[in-house]
Amino acid sequence: YLLWVSTFMGLLYDSYYYGLLGIQAFVLPIIVLFIYWIFKHVSPSFLSLLGSMIIFITLMEGSTFLLQNIFQLIHVSTVSFIIHDLGPTLALNTILFILLYYPMRKLMNL
Predict the structure, then answer these.
(1) Rounded to whole angstroms, how far apart are CA atoms 14 and 55?
(2) For the chain, percent helix, then strand, then coil, each to nearest 5?
(3) What are 42-95's pLDDT values in tens digits?
(4) Core-most of 4, 12, 13, 24, by most CB within 10 Å?
(5) How many helices (H) and strands (E) does the chain have?
(6) What are phi and psi of 80, to 5 degrees?
(7) Selection from 104, 106, 101, 107 nearest residue 51 by Cα
């Protein structure tokens, strides 16, 4: 189910932001499959979820950056990408994860 949803969401994202279908529609379902595979072998805890989130976001953003560079959709250096895109994305998502982990856990009765 999530594989189809991620493909659809990737197509929507591609059509809105890139005007070129395929980058997110390709990367997002692969990340979802990777998440399924990882959590077959790792039990969810605060640290494993935090580490997984950091890895998944890095893979998602990094693969998108790589594909955009390959197809010459952007002209940004790797250092600029890390400083201006990946770093702030990871920082914000880590802060939100830490702040929302326990309330969401209580809300979902886990």
Answers:
(1) 22
(2) 85, 0, 15
(3) 998 999 999 999 999 999 999 999 998 998 888 999 999 999 999 999 999 999
(4) 24
(5) 5, 0
(6) -65, -40
(7) 101
Query: Which CA distances in Å does 64 have to 58, 69, 107?
Result: 10, 9, 33
Average pLDDT, the chain: 92
What is the model's pTM? 0.86
Angle between helical axes of 23-41 and 46-70 (0-180°, round to 10): 150
- Please state, in angstroms and rounded to a whole number, the distance separating the CA atoms of residues 83 and 77: 10
Long-range pairs of 58-63 with CB within 8 A, sequence gap ≥ 24: 58/86, 58/90, 59/31, 59/34, 60/27, 60/28, 60/31, 61/85, 61/86, 61/89, 62/86, 63/27, 63/30
